[in-house]
Specification:
Strand content: 35-45%
CATH superfamily of the largest domain: Ribosomal protein S6/Translation elongation factor EF1B
Order of helices and strands: EHEEHEHHH
CATH class of the largest domain: Alpha Beta
Distance between the termini: 51 Å
Structural class: alpha+beta
Mean pLDDT: 81
Low-confidence stretches: 111-120, 125-130, 132-136
Strand order of the largest sheet: 2-3-1-4
Largest sheet: 4 strands, antiparallel
Shape: globular
């Protein structure tokens, strides 16, 4: 069994509940083949860099799975057939990353770049509150 990170982009006109159903369908295929889903992460509706099948936006989902190559091949086959999937990519990884995926990390940085300065300062202050009082006084 190998570790895989599967990312797919679903059509923009689907509801988030429908996207979750798609993710559960792909997770079920992996589980039926003897694999296991480590994490299922919905990253939201995001703007695409270019039009894909006349879509400007897409729902991003990241699945971290431990599965056999045959299970991943079957999931890719089903994704290729499904009309709701715009793009997908499967990457073999050494180990699954802890914490949020790179997509969610990037979206947080983008929000910080476009937020008004007073909102950014408020977030920075909230993040720095994790230190002790002695550290904050010095």
């Amino acid at each position: 069994m190998n570790n895989y990170e599967i990312v797919f982009i679903a059509r923009q006109d689907l509801a988030p509940a429908q996207v979750e159903t798609l993710a559960e369908k792909f997770s079920g295929i992996i589980k039926d083949q003897g694999g296991q889903i480590v994490r299922n992460e919905y990253c939201g509706l995001r703007t695409l860099a270019y039009l894909i099948k006349k879509n400007r936006r897409g729902h991003y989902v990241v699945l971290n799975a431990t599965a056999s190559a045959a299970a991943v091949k079957e999931v890719e086959r089903v994704m290729r057939i499904n009309e709701d999937i715009l793009r997908f990519q499967t990457i073999a990884v050494e180990e699954h990353e802890k914490g949020p995926s790179a997509i969610l990390k990037a979206s947080r940085y983008q929000r910080d770049d476009y937020a008004p300065s007073h909102e950014r300062e408020g977030r920075d202050a909230e993040e720095s509150d994790s230190g002790t009082e002695e550290e904050l006084e010095s």
